[in-house]
Amino acid sequence: MNRRTLLVSTSIAAALTLAGCGAGATAGTDSASDGGSGASDGGGGLAVVASTDVWGDVAASVGGEHVQVTSLITDPEADPHEYEASTRNQLAVSKAAVVIANGGGYDDFIDRMLDAAGDSSATVLNAVEISGRTATGGEELNEHVWYDLPTVQKVIDRLISSFSEALPEQAEDFARNGAALTKSVGELLDREDELKGAGSGRGVAITEPVPLYMLEAIGLENRTPAEFSEAVEEGEDVSVTVLQEVLALLEDRQVDLLAYNEQAAGPQTEQVQQAAEDAGIPVVPFTETLPKGQDYVTWMGANLDALAQALGA
Description:
The chain is an alpha/beta fold and 313 residues long. It folds into 2 domains: 3-188, Nitrogenase molybdenum iron protein domain (Rossmann fold, 3-Layer(aba) Sandwich); 195-311, Rossmann fold. 45% of the residues lie in helices and 12% in strands. The chain is built from 12 helices and 8 strands. The chain has helices at 12-15, 53-63, 87-95, 109-117, 127-131, 149-166, 171-199, 212-217, 226-234, 240-251, 267-278, 296-311, and strands at residues 46-52, 67-73, 98-101, 123-126, 203-206, 221-222, 257-261, 283-286.
């Protein structure tokens, strides 16, 4: 079972009594409020809930002053896989007009919270479903679709239409904001294309598949044994044999960089990181939530800059 299915207590009643990661303010988002739900008269904005601050930031960029976004996971130091619902965040979900989930098993707690909300009439946007991505070649679906820039553009389009349906008088603003964000993401796509010259055909090792869509978009080939990244993602120990395979990749310089998930580090991934550093292989850190003080576009831009530096582009 993917550990993402274990993000909340198996009992909704118990989960609602637990203090979760909180809904602290992030760029373009606010914590849960005690205001009303659905379309607003402008006092608090359209109530929107996102499972993480990544999608919360995208929603806030599209909605601007007309939306009030609550992101359930906001702490850059928190492990996104260990979320437990608080009563405050459950209240936000119950009052939301639009809910944005990542999907793909990453944030199943959203479904549980919607079920607990009972008669919620929220429009629910599922990024994985919007992406059209499916498992291929016998491999599991990579659910980290916020690193897939074309998917983000599709989600922007759906946000524009959902917000416009809820607040038709603000439709022009939503379209204008969405177009500006789509353009910025398009510039990131252009940057990916530019990096293909430096990345095409070169090998990469990963600790988890979090940034894999971006790595593949610039032409890098993932040479990590699937058993390694799957075990790390599941929070399980990696077998000695598989760990040695990964260490050999690095020690023999069969890859040109290591993509490292900073939010899921442990003794074995730290050993891999050290092996890369000892071999003189660049280590590029990635995260699953927004770094403090950054929005989605600046964050993805910084990731591409880090990859360019590692590849000598």
